[in-house]
Amino acid sequence: MKGLVFDIKRYSINDGPGIRTTIFFKGCPLKCLWCHNPESQSFERQFFYYKDKCISCKFCVASCSADSIKFVDGALKRGECNFCLKCEEVCPGNSIKSVGSYYSAEDVLDFVVKDYHFYGLNGGVTFSGGEPLFQFDFLIETLKLLKKENLNIAIDTSGFIATEKILEAAKYTDIFLYDIKHFDSSKHKILTGVDNTLILKNLKELSNSGANIIVRIPIIPGINEDEENLINIKKFVKSLQGKIKIEPVFYHNIMQGKYELCGKKYSLNDIVVPDNSYKREKSRVLGVDYDEANRM
Amino acid sequence: MTKQTECKVINLNGGYFERGMNERVRFLRKNSLLSVETFSFERAKLLTEFYKSVEGKKIGIATKRGMALKYILENKAIYIGEDELIVGERGEFPKATPSYPEISLHSLGDLQILNSREKLPYKVSDEAFKIYEEEIIPYWEGKTIREEIFEKVSEEWKRAYKAGIFTEFMEQRAPGHTVADGKIYDKGLKDFIKDIENKINSLDNSDPYFEEKLDELTGMKIACEGVINYAKRHAKKAREMSLQEKDPIRKQELLKIAEICEYVPENAPRNFYEALQHYWFIHLGVITELNGWDAFSPGRLDLNLYPFYRNDIESGRFTKDEIKELLECFWVKFNNHPAPPKVGVTAEESSTYTDFAQINFGGVDKDGQDAVNDLSFLLLDVVEEMRIVQPNASVHISRKNPDRFLKRALEVIRTGFGQPAIFNADAVMQELLRQGKNIVDARLGGTSGCVESGAFGKENYTLTGYFNLVKVLEITLNNGFDPVTGEKIGIETGQFENFKSFEDLLSAFERQLKYFLDIKIKGNLVIEEIYAKKMPAPFLSILIDDCIKNAKDYNAGGARYNSSYIQGVGIGTITDSLSALKEIVFEKKLIPQNMVLKILKSNFEGYEVERLILKNKTKKYGNDEPYADEIMKKVFEMFFGYIDGKPNYKGGQFRINMLPTTVHVYFGSVIGATFDGRKAFEPLSEGISPVQGSDINGPTAVIKSASKMDHLKTGGTLLNMKVTPSLIKDEKGLNALLQLVRTYFMFDGHHIQFNVIDAKTLKKAKEKPENYRDLIVRVAGYSDYFCNLNDKLKNEIIERTEHESFV
Fold first, then answer.
1. Which domains does chain A have, with CATH numbers?
2. Which residues of B130-152 are buried (b: 16+ CB within 10 A; e: fewer)?
3. Among this protein's residues, is B329 annotated catalytic?
4. For A88, A257, B299, B567, which has the most beta carbons within 10 A of its beta carbon?
5. pTM of this structure
C-alpha cells in the first residue's frame, strides 16, 4: 500500500517535541482560509511552477509524454497530465516541482531513520498534512512499522475524522497535535468549510482514552482572536481529562507565495502579522505562559 | 521574527561603545575599539640597533636572539593606560603593531599599501617611512628569512605557489600555533631560570652538540631575564605615575600594579589578578620575540585559573565581580593587538586584523573528569558582555560536560556574533592520541588558531600552508597546464577527453595531487630547516616541554611533539565537481566529454542550460547523499594518505587539517569555472562546509555528510552552520540545537560554529556599513567585523546565510 506525501522535512522543531522529521500527507477535508500549506488540500498530485526560475528552454515541452505542455506569454501552461514527471526531471532551473509522491511504509521508514541519531529522548516523527488520518490504512501500516523501531510518533490532526479511526491511531501515537480553529460551530464552518461538532467530540474521546494531546489554536487576527472564542476553547479544554495542554499558534504570512506557485488565490491578504505584545496578550487569555525567550 | 532581529542589531549599534560591566571596562573597551591600527617601527629600530651593536662578535644564534629580545624589552616604551588594571603593550600604545624585519622586511611600497589600502590598513607615520628607508631596509635587505625561503625552494615550488596551488605560512611569520599549559602558573620565570641553569650544569662538554645546547640554554636564560626586567620596568613606571596621580583610588591601583609587576612573572602568581598579569607578560614576551602565527594563547583558562579563583573567592580576597572586571580588562588587552601587518598572498589567505589568540573553556581535566567549573560560566558571561572579536573564545564540549554548559554557550552564540565556537573535546583528545600523544597530554590539550588541535605546552604544531584541492583538479583536467595562465605547472596525467571512465579521471587526479603535495612537503622541509638553524625562539622554547630538557629550540624540534600541518581547502567544491563529472559526463552522458573543457573555459557563457543542470541536477555534498559523500571521502583519504605520518624536519610528522581562514576566497580567485556550476574566480567552499547554497536538506543532513569524513585522522576541521534567528528564538530551538551539536560530536565531528543573523540584515550592512560597524559575523574559525571584510567575503557570507532551506 502506498500513501500520497507532498513533503518531508528534516530538523522540524515546531511539530512536536525535540528534533523531528515531519511527513506531510496530501489531502485535507478542511479548507481553512489561512491554510499554510495550500498544496496540501487536494488529494491529487499537482505541480508548483516557479516562473522566476524558468529560462523558457522548453525542455519540458519536448519531454512531455502527454504532449500537453505549452508556453503562453512566456509562461508554462499545463493540460492533461499522466504524471510521468519527465518535465520535472529535465527542467534545468528546477522551475517545475511536482507536489505529491507515493511512499510505501518502508519508504517512510527508510527516510526517517536517516535522522535517527538526532531524535534523542523526545524527538521523532510527526505525521502532518493535509490530514494524515484521511489516508488511514496507509497511516496505520506506517505507524506500526515505525513503532517497531521504537520511534516517537506525533500526529498533527484537524480531528475531522471518524472517531474510531482516531482512537485506533492513538494506540501507536505518543502525542497528538490537535487543532481547534473556532469554538462556534457555524463560524468554524465559514472559516474551514466544516462544522466542529465531530472535532470537539473526537477531542473529548481522545482525551478520555488517555492520549497525550497538545491542543493547538491557530490565532488569526480579526478572524478567531476574540476573547470570547479563546475563553470558550480554554474552558472546554480545561473540562477534559488527561494529559492535555494548550498551545497558541500565531498567524504568519510567509506561505503566501505558495498560493501563487500552485495557482490559488489567497483571500486574507490584509491581515497584520502579530507582534510580541499581541502574542503575549492572547497567551494570557488562553492561560498559557508565553515563552518570552525571544531575545533575538 | 525578522523585525525583531533588526531591532536588536540597531539597539546594539547604539551601544557599540557601551559594553562592559562597569565604567572602567566600558572606557577601556571603547578606547580599544577607537584606537587606530598603526604600524610601529619601534621593534624594528631596536632590533636593528642591537644587531649592529653585536656585528662581528662571535655569539651563538640562540644567545643572540635571547639578547635581542632582552634589548628590545629593556628599551621599548612602557605604556600604562588610564584606568588599566592589566598592563603591557607590544607596541607603544594599543594597536601599535610592530614589524619583524628579520623574518619579512616591508618595502617602502609595502608600507604605502599598508597605509593606504581600503581594507585592513595600518597607519604608517612619515617617521616610519624615513626610518625604514634609512635604517631598517638597508640593514635587513638580503638577510631576511623570507628572502632565504624564496631563494632555497625549488622552481616547481615557486610555480605552484604563484599559481595558487598552496600558500606558505612561514614566508612572513614564524612558526607558532602554540599554547600555554598550566605549568606557567606553578612556576615563575626565576624557577625556569633555575631549570635552565641546572641543565647547563649537567651538560657534558664531550657531547658533539655541547656548543649548540649551551647556546640555546644561554639564549633561554637571557630571554627570561629580559621578560622579568620588562615587567619590573612596568612596576617602576606605575610607581612614578602614582606619585603624579591625584585620584586616591587610582593611586592605590597604580601601586597595586607596581607591586604585581615587581612580583610576576619572576615568581609564580599567588592570586587571580597576578595570574592574569603573569600570563600577559609571558604573552608579550612570546609575541615580541617573533611574529609566530596566531600570536600566543592562554589555552585552558578555566582549568588553569580555577584554583586561584576558588581560593580568592573563598578567602574573600576578591569578589566574583572583581574577578570578572579583571577578566574583562584582560579581554581588552587581546583586542589591543591586531595581527602583525601582512602583505601579498599571506594578507589574502588571512584577511583580518584578528591574530587568533584562542581561549578554551570546558573539556576534561588530567584525569579525564568533567572540567567545567564556575569560572567556565563566568568566562561565558564575559564573552557575551564584551562582544569583541579578540580573543577568540571557544567552548570544548566533552560527553562528560553538562548540557547546561553547552546550553549557556548556545545562548551566547544566539546573541549573534559567532562566539564562542564549539569544539568536541573528546574528538580533539582522540586526534591527539592517534598521533601518539600520551593520554594526559591529550586531555590537557585543546585547540588554537581557528580549530587546530594541539597538546598545550608540549607541542610545536605548525600550520605550513593551505592546499588548493580544486586547483589540482583544474590542472588535472588540463593535463598539467594551468588554464588561467596557460603555463605548465603540473605533470601530464592524460587528456581529459581520453579518459575512459571516472576512475581514470580520479587516478589522474591522484597522481597530480601526489606531485604537488610532494613539492609542498619538500618545500616545508627546506623552510623548517631554515627556521631551525637561523631563527630560534628561546623564550617560547622555555614554555614548551621538553625544550629545556632537550636543550633544543622550539623551532629545531625541542618540543615533546612536533607536527607540521597542511590544510586542505575546497572539499565541498571539488566533491560537487567530481560528482557532476561522474554522473553527468561519464554515467548519464548528458554533457559530452569533449565539451567539458570548452564549457569551463567559456565560463558558461552560451552554456546557461548546462550551468543550471550542473547547479541543480547533480548530487551535492552536504545533503546526506551517499553518491557525493563517497567522493568526498575518497578525496579526503587521498589527501590524508599522501601527507599523514611523513617525517618533518623537526623530528615529528606531517598531518592534515581542513580549514580555510579566508583563503577560500583567494584560492577561488585563481581558478576558472568549475564543473559544479561555479563561475570563474568565485570563492570555493570553506572548511568542510558544503558549497554555499547547495545543502538543501537541512542541518541534520549537513551534519551527516560532514561526519562521513574521518575527523579523527585530522588535527581539526571547520564546519560553518548558518542558523536563522527564528530557528533558535526560543527554548525549544535552543534545545534542538543542543541536540544537533551533541549528535555531531557523537559522530566525532571536531568543531561547529554558528552564524546567527539573517541575510536581510547583512545586505543592509553591506549597503550602509556606517550603521552596522558593530556587526560581527563568524567567518571561518574566527569572528570579524562584517565591515572589515572584502566584498567577495561579504557576498559569500550573505549567500551562506541567505540559504534557509530548513525554515
1. 2-43+101-293 (3.20.20.70), 46-98 (3.30.70.20)
2. ebbeebbbebbeeebbbebbeee
3. no
4. B567
5. 0.93
